[in-house]
Design goal:
Layout (H helix, E strand, L loop, with lengths): L1 H16 L4 H21 L14 H25 L3 H11 L3 H13 L3 H13 L5 H13 L3 H13 L6 H13 L3 H13 L6 H13 L3 H13 L6 H13 L3 H13 L6 H13 L3 H13 L6 H13 L3 H13 L6 H13 L3 H13 L6 H13 L3 H13 L6 H13 L7 H10 L16
Length: 458
Amino acid sequence: MAMRAAQRVHGVVSKRYCQMSMSSILEHLSQGLKRELGIAFHTRVPGVRGLAVGGCEDNTAQFAHLSTEMLGNKLANEIQAAKNREEIREILSASRPSSKGFQEVLKILGAKKSVESCRGAFSVAASLRIPGIAHYNTFIGILVRHKNLKAALDQFECMQHADIKPDVVTYNTLISAVGKARDWETAMHGFQQMRKEGIEPNVITYNSLIGAFAEVGMWEKALIALDKMRSAALEPNIVTYSTLISALEKSGQWERALKIWEDMHKDGVHPNAAMFNTMITALGKNRQWEKALEIVRQMQTVGVQADVFTYTSLMSAYVKGDEWERAVKTFREMCEAGIQPDAFAYSTLVRAFAKGKQWELVDEICTEMKSSGIQLTNRTYNALISTFAKSEQWERAADAFRTMQAEGIKPDKITRDTLIDTFEKAGRVWDGAPYVMRELRRAGIQPARRYGHANTHV
């Protein structure tokens, strides 16, 4: 029957379809030949390969792909509708999909986020000895994408019991996954294990390992991994440099970040907007506003468009460097460039005016934010409270806290620490501390232990 179906597909396509456009062929297939072409493909009988006749060679690969996709969709829908694994077994036993066909089924189920159906299909397929290394890699990738790392690691064990050797794709997927889960030791073990098995790490492997170290702030190990990558004659790419610079920025290692930035340019790797912003932030946090400005100029030279984060990061660098007027000027330039300031940009502008003791302008900006429909967040109010407190504007800080409550914005631990810590640094326990602590407790935020000596009992 399958042979007759294949012959019919061959005959019909040869005589009627070779000179038709793909859209016309698809229309005809949808009216009846769709199922037959799927049968002809997955049973691997002669016929489909013979479609390339009469000037139809260019369409052969498209037909093959089409039939795989048709079969995959059909089986995926049937598997999704199955009530249990026994029904899935019947579906797979009856259809006996080819390797490509089953791969398509897994991809479709994964795209549909039907993880349980995918697991059921794979379990049954494994008992029928259908899966190979490509299928295991696809399935492990699906489990990882859906945050099921334990199941992915279990499948790694299963494939080894099935005498299917993992390859570089397998290890890359798992090293990346455990790294993002902050398990750098398992990532390192996987890296060492693949080398023992004679599998050479590639750029993706090293990037995943560097990412695992970066995730937990182990920038020293990340730099060692970079050296090993270069020793293996592998060239770092934009992912490598982006991960390293971000890790160094978070760890306050701006000088090392700047060195990596320079190395990146020497290697001919061109940074994107996100990398420029990260570098500007790293320098700004450490009061290196001149160097931050140089990075912005580099950005303009290579034609990378600055965004609101770029301008705000530069403003923040100016504020930390006691150059509040430059920060205000940068805010104006951002507006003139047609970039709409966000809450963080306005918060930074508030800090700039406060740094210059321009209190009336601080109040005006807060009013402007509200009139512009920009939602003031706890981050905005934390910046306000911190700015007022550092400038010994105690009542303004208290008013900002009360306004925050009146607007229904929930304070957080940063609010607590900002309110209490800054007042203690002023050399006294603030008279309003009992009120503050009572309100913070109502918000579900407990006082830090170091404030236990303060007169905060209510």
